[in-house]
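Hi all, posting the design record for the shared folder.

TITLE: backbone redesign
STEP: 1 of 1
STRUCTURE INPUT:
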């Protein structure tokens, strides 16, 4: 398991931004296609069942790319990415939520998202 410094996690998040943006776009397409498939498969501008399956496969690939960095993809809608770290000797997760401009939050690894605090 990777342990990041705050600077390393911020740099990795910056490198991941194109992948995260693509996840958001493909996620929207997959949601629309899922509605099409559930509605009897009537074709829409994005396609039907084959395009839905392709979108699912693309999402799997993109999510794997995030996880391969050592980051943890904890949420899908909205995206939530955690970076294992230590602050003052305490295991924490540096935490980025879709829509945030930067990596500016953390929480103790044993407490979860509800215990989020701003990074010092």
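Okay, here is what came back for every position:
SEQUENCE:
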């Amino acid at each position: 398991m990777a342990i990041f410094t705050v600077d390393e996690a911020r740099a990795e998040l910056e490198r991941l931004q194109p992948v995260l943006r693509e996840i958001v776009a493909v996620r929207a397409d997959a949601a629309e296609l899922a509605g099409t498939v559930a509605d009897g498969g009537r074709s829409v501008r994005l396609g039907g069942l084959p395009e839905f399956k392709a979108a699912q496969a693309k999402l799997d690939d993109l999510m794997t790319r995030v996880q391969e960095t050592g980051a943890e993809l904890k949420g899908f809608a909205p995206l939530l990415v955690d970076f294992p770290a230590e602050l003052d000797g305490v295991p924490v997760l540096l935490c980025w939520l879709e829509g945030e401009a930067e990596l500016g939050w953390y929480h103790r690894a044993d407490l979860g998202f509800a215990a989020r605090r701003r990074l010092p």
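COMMENT: The chain is about 45% helix and 25% strand.
Let me know if anyone wants the other runs.
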